[in-house]
Amino acid sequence: MGCSENGGVALNFEENPLCLLHRFLLMHRHSPIYYSKLYRDFCSLDVLAPREVVYFYERHEKAISELDFKEYFDILVEYVEALYHCESYESHMLMAEVVIETSICNNIVLHRGEDIYQKMLFRKACSHYHLGAFRRSGVILRQLCRMRPETVSYKKMLVRSGRMEIGETMQNVRAATIFCFLLATLVTLAEVLVIRNFYTDFQQTTEYTRLGLFSAGILGLLYRYVDMYRSQVIEWEDFAVVSENQSNPDNRF
């Protein structure tokens, strides 16, 4: 290895390859980190304006996909976060899967000090919650609570999602019960006005139908309320308590 006429360093390829590699690294150890112009433009965006982030990504999506992987992944993660804050929950869940798969394929655990896998899963659960898919949200949140039982936000969101699921189920039960009672009322009117006067042969069958509808409505309502309290309220809240005990060994019995 020698010096060039302009004072630079010239490589002598007849030297030992290991020496060449060592000297090359010494030459470039103080080289500044280079970021592409597109990445610098993205970093200049206002982080409190998620719509700007979404617009920027969707306008430069092809160019972003061709960036260095680190730059691409940084922008992708910020774009997914911006989708969530813009309340584009369906698009957010779709792109969150992309981040999760990319992080797994490239063995990325932490991104800017956060567990990227758990972060994306939690955001995805929240998106399901905002879209009214409380059961799907609960499934993801249970998984997260098993992974990190000491995380309070996971447990709170799990209980919250469970209660919303109960409320949704109660509405369905109430609607089905009202339908049974209305149908039973119509059968009763038909029995009084028509069956007893013109079709007496069907009177007994009509009475059985009316009683069956009333009984089904009442029994179904009672059963669902009892079953929901037993299998859902206790399940969701006890799961949060169990998770807390797992994170604090001194509290275990």
Give the arrangement of secondary structure elements.
Blueprint lengths: L1 E2 L5 E2 L6 H12 L8 H7 L6 H10 L1 H5 L3 H17 L3 H17 L4 E2 L2 E2 H15 L3 H14 L4 H47 L4 H45 L6
Antiparallel strand pairs: 1-2, 3-4
Helix pairs in contact: 3-5, 5-6, 6-7, 7-8, 8-9, 9-10
Describe this structure as you would to a colleague.
The protein is 75% helix and 3% strand. Residues 1-15, 20-32 and 249-253 have low confidence and may be disordered. The protein has a two-stranded antiparallel sheet with strand order 1-2. Helix 5 runs antiparallel to helix 6 (89-105) and helix 6 runs antiparallel to helix 7. The chain is elongated, with a radius of gyration of 32 Å. It has three domains: 1-31, no CATH class; 39-131; 163-243. With 253 residues, the protein is mainly alpha-helical.
Structural class: mainly alpha
Residue runs with pLDDT of under 50 for 5 or more positions: 1-15, 20-32, 249-253
The coarse overall form would be: elongated
- Biggest sheet details: 2 strands, antiparallel
With strands numbered from the N-terminus, the spatial order across the biggest sheet is: 1-2
Radius of gyration: 32 Å
Termini separation (Å)? 72 Å
Q: Strand-and-helix sequence, N→C?
A: EEHHHHHHEEHHHH
Properties at a glance:
two-stranded antiparallel sheet; two-stranded antiparallel ribbon; 3% strand; 253 residues; mainly alpha
Quick description:
The protein has 253 residues and is mainly alpha-helical.
